[in-house]
Amino acid sequence: MKKFLSVVLVVLTVLSLGSLVGCGDKEEVLTGEGLKFGMGVYSYVGENASATAEKNGKGEVVTTVAAVLLDKDGKILKSDIDSISATVEFTSTGTAVPASEFKTKRELGDNYGMVAYGNAKDEWYKQVDNFEALAKGKTFDEVKALMVEDGKGNDDVIKAGCTINIADFVKALEKAVNNATKCVAMSEDEINVAIIASQGENSAATAEADGKNGVTLTVAATTVNKDKKVTAARNDELNFDITFDSTGAIKTDLSANILTKFERGESYGMVAYGNAKKEWFEQSEILNKACIGKTSKQISALAAKDGTASEELQTAGCTIAVSEMVKALVKSAK
Length: 334
Known about the structure:
It is built from 14 helices and 8 strands. By secondary structure, it is of the alpha+beta class.
């Protein structure tokens, strides 16, 4: 009888410890496949032109976001890619022209116009879907080998139904694979990226200072299980200004290496110059962890009505404004 009771006590203890792990470390409860999840953001200045008396000047910020779910051998189980070309304008007198709306290429869908105006067989989003299907089961090196010198895909890519340039996809995927970390996602979970683009800061040029028209991008990626709960999450932001002088001549460094806040790491300066206790990327990670095990509706509650972090986040050390980040995470999780 005593032996039986001892066995029962051991079992109950193990179960109790498992329950405690579930409260304090969701990863130990949810994981089982040893998968890795990553998100990569690749940006650069695209088409641009100085202003003339007849036509506004412009600057385009091209951004591609990729998310990957990797198996234990580093092969791509699933991926999702989206891209946006956010263009801002300015006049020949050095005045910024506010942008009305930005949409990603997936959001534009059939209206992107590759079939209607470019004589393509498939629209952009369908071609990217074809590329993602081809990448499945491959390592990043094998995916990179699909690209030829001019950035186009090789014969395998073209046969798969992707005839567009894949260079930006590969660069975003490389970042996603390189920063992938262990997650609690399962192979059957859905994966999605989300991009929210908005008008950034803008000002007119003067004789003393260049004017600027900025773009703010908030990006997120999640995996979601059959219960509609998030099993992996990443978020990031970037701000980039197109600058110009009082005559409308573009002054932006067109070769600038555009880095996200996460990529800037400690150099972003919240601790050094803003008296923050944690840097932006550290606070972003706290938000990501808080999303695990939550539905999109529960994630939306992580931002207070005034855009500040919820009490849950602030207690964990995330004190930055999170409204746009939460919107992107919710958009991805839906």
